[in-house]
Amino acid sequence: MTAGKRAGTDGILFTDHYQLTMAQLYFRLGIHEQPAQFDHFFRSYPDYGRHQAGYCINAGLEWLVDWMDTARFRDEDIAYLGNLTGTTGRRVFADDFLDWLGTNGSFEAISLEAIPEGRVVHPNIPLTVVRGPLAMAQILETPLLNQLNYQTLIATKASRVNEAGRGRPVLEYGLRRAPDLGANAGSRAALIGGADFTSNVGVSRSLGIPAKGTHAHSLVQVFMARGEGELGAFRAYAELYPDDCLLLVDTIDTVESGVPNAIRVFEELRRNGHEPVGIRLDSGDLAYLSIQAAQRLNEAGFPDVSIVISSNLDELAIWQIISQIEEEAPRYGVDPARLIGRLTYGVGTRLITSQGDSALDGVYKLVAIRQSGMWVPVLKVSEARAKIPNPGKKETWRFYDQRRTATADVLGVEGENPLSDDQVLLHHPTEHTSHRTLNRTEISEVEPLAVEVLREGELVYELPELDAIRARRRADLDRLDPGVRRLINPHVYHVSLTQTLWDLKVDSVEKARSPRSSGD
Amino acid sequence: MTAGKRAGTDGILFTDHYQLTMAQLYFRLGIHEQPAQFDHFFRSYPDYGRHQAGYCINAGLEWLVDWMDTARFRDEDIAYLGNLTGTTGRRVFADDFLDWLGTNGSFEAISLEAIPEGRVVHPNIPLTVVRGPLAMAQILETPLLNQLNYQTLIATKASRVNEAGRGRPVLEYGLRRAPDLGANAGSRAALIGGADFTSNVGVSRSLGIPAKGTHAHSLVQVFMARGEGELGAFRAYAELYPDDCLLLVDTIDTVESGVPNAIRVFEELRRNGHEPVGIRLDSGDLAYLSIQAAQRLNEAGFPDVSIVISSNLDELAIWQIISQIEEEAPRYGVDPARLIGRLTYGVGTRLITSQGDSALDGVYKLVAIRQSGMWVPVLKVSEARAKIPNPGKKETWRFYDQRRTATADVLGVEGENPLSDDQVLLHHPTEHTSHRTLNRTEISEVEPLAVEVLREGELVYELPELDAIRARRRADLDRLDPGVRRLINPHVYHVSLTQTLWDLKVDSVEKARSPRSSGD
To answer: Are A465 and A322 members of one domain?
Structure first.
């Protein structure tokens, strides 16, 4: 648990106050242990302004499950809550409720199904389904959304950066401008979504991968202050790290000083039996400078050393740099494909903060409650039809077409066979008049998306390693239409309801809007 | 320390890998304990796109100092680093360096000056000045920037939201869409910058303020599923919290159902000797609905209960809502000033993520190193003139004019008297030809901005309580020109260098660009 000034801020009280006041109300009514189901899903892809995501990469599950395993109301939490008072000085939480929380205030009775990490996911499809006693399932809302929203947001951005970079390595560098300790979850999500490595040492350790980095401008400055200049800095670095020598060449002047000095040191390294790793460019016109650097490195006999570029990169900046290299490089006698094939992208701020759209709109909605042995669908009838959640217990499938490409994610009622008819009618989740009919023969595969993760608090799912999560991502992306993967103006992927679920939704909305529901 | 999957991610390894490889190089050269000075400052105000900040609110110092007090290289960290290998399988970190880190790898020798939290701050003025042994001061870069950048970013956004809301209460609600554990720092920063309360229970506890909240739509849904409807939910809530009764009225239909049901329950409460607190609107046209709700509440004899509005609020949304109320309310017989005076703003996602500009561009630059008993200024001569840091040991003052309004933040050389002449020449920090001359008589006050916080690791500053930090913020805002506080297209506040510092900078740049510096 975090110590000092932050003590207790990452435990069970990492939640919204109203979750606790509502839990007490459920306790008072005797329904706090009544089984309830909440669905977690997002409503729209991130929209970065000039560009928009056409898919998301699911992430965050493992750390959530880990947090749920240890978070519980401890004596100090109960004592704190017992001292809280309302407007008139009366205690907010009564002893009987606090006693119950002290004994039952953990996630040991929660069951959880989820779409695995690394998978491509879409709006309105439940990513996580929580079933359990109403009070604790309610309290879970805030920490669950907090952890899953952010990691999915960052994994999605990382996937876009990776796609823009045409598979060349992406290094996640964002720690210094990341949101405080959220940086750790962000680095992990970036590694799931498309970053190959991170500079974040602690997260690299926790995931069992090497941390990566070069050196800072300050190293060169120190040597300049000592009168040994940039060349002195490069030599000292090469001597200490002869087989991992990656030099930052833009402290003084990239073309006039940095690259020539790096080449000199690389030649010395080679004479001593070592091969240099590369150079890093961190300012200026990165396309132009990488061409100039490549030209000089090629001429000097280093056609294969890496060129790491960084400074305000995101998917559009990388796309622009690649385009410019393709256009300009030939003029300088540099083969563009060869140059692009030696690039590595250092991506910081814009990845770790998802610059342009800094939050995913994931929600956690009560959809069913168990009464007298039966699951009763419940829903919110708000003004905006698009915001009405799909009621009840559901299943989700991904339909693949004859090209083995994903063609729709389909939400149906539990136990339903989505291919029971020759003609499959798929409803738009909110628009009454919009639907699509598929022939059963057009569908090559129907894949259930969710797995069982927690059964009454017990982990019944083998949490995959980072490599397996990344392989899952690549496999899903391979089966996604290129139009959906497009960086700008992507095709809208189909998310649909079965006829059975559509009918249930229409019926529930009508019932909820009837006068009886709004009064006594 | 964070447990489970995240173990070790919030300790000393919460840093970039290259800080450690550079530290080893300094160790190898024997300069790892040479005193060095790093300045932390940001280069530009957040720019949210359609609107821009004209000032920032400084935040994050207390939690940074707290983290520095406990973060150190522990045995498990040293063991981990000792096992890391480079490209060829050779160990990255040698035993002698790791031994030194094990013994000296804390921030006990670091001295730190800073501008206090809550103060209005501007670009290019050092917010934090770190002096100490080169190696540990270098390692501090990443966690310092991580913690200070994010809190200052969010405190700044909170101040804007607060200004837009004309001083009416702001509740910070962003936890569920905040960046993982960064949410805690974000809530704290929001409370410093302009939020009155947060829904985040853990942070409220750590700061000694009450957490706030109402109830969720799910509460009403539960009662609907039980056949007791919205009115049943409101009654149950009012019964349990008779003196803290704040009802969410938009689950079914705000005007047709929610407000009439709330009024019925408020009347029942009053008959039982309690006064209701208010209602919350969380969807739809918040200006229109708040007018409709106010009209009905007024007619029913509740002209003073709060109307809490929430849903995608930020400073511009609040500004728009207030403008619309001023225009529309009279048509419905509602006094706009009275209505605005009973509003409370629930602000979530857009505050905690600083939507529009999700990172502050704070940097940490080596500016001086002590050699042979003398501080030698050092600097980075990059292509962009604006990025050249101001060299050496400096002091910062805020100049106030005869209206007692802040007119410039001035950076000078340590020990300099900025008012030594009758005419004070202030240089633009980067533009050669741009300067401003003030008569000494125009200046009513010269205020040093930095305080000493750590003297070789020892806390020599009394960290102020939240209330004092907020009072500091309000005092600074009161003395800031309204043009600088403007939400859109703010005046550019003057940040200037004294003649002495300007001359030193020009001289240092010339020296660094001389051939001797770039080679041997």
So the answer is: no
Same domain, residue pair A281 and A262? yes
DSSP A382-394: -S-GGGPPPPSSE
What pLDDT does residue B125 have? Answer: 95
Q: What is the ipTM of this complex?
A: 0.95
Q: Which of A269-273, A414-418, B377-381 has the lowest mean pLDDT?
A: B377-381
Q: What's the pLDDT score for residue A284?
A: 94
Of B9, B199, B253, nearest to A206 by CB-CB distance is B9
With b meaning 16 or more CB within 10 Å and e meaning fewer, what string describes B118-151? bbbbbbbbbbbbbbbbbbbbbbbbbbbbbbbbbb
Cα of A499 to nearest chain B Cα, Å: 23
Mark whether A230 and A132 lie in a shared domain: no
CA–centroid distance for B133 within its chain: 28
* Strand, helix or coil for residue B43: coil
Percent of chain A at pLDDT exceeding 70: 95
> Nearest CA to CA, how far is A185 from chain B (Å)?
7
Residue A443 sits in the same domain as residue A504: yes
Domains in chain B, number: 1
Q: Per the CB < 8 Å rule, is B512 touching A151?
A: no
Give residue B246's identity as a one-letter amino acid code. Answer: L
Chain B environment of A63 (Cβ under 8 Å): 5-6
Distance from CA of A438 to the nearest CA of B (A): 35
Q: What are phi and psi of A72, to 5 degrees?
A: -160, 160
Supply the range of the domain harboring residue A231: 163-352
CATH code, A274: 3.20.20.70
Q: Are A236 and A224 in contact (CB under 8 A)?
A: no
- Is A3 within a domain? no
Residues of chain A found within 8 Å of residue B237, distances taken between Cβ atoms: 25
B184 closest CB neighbour out of A9, A229, A236: A9
Is residue A204 domain-shared with residue A348, that is, in the same domain? yes
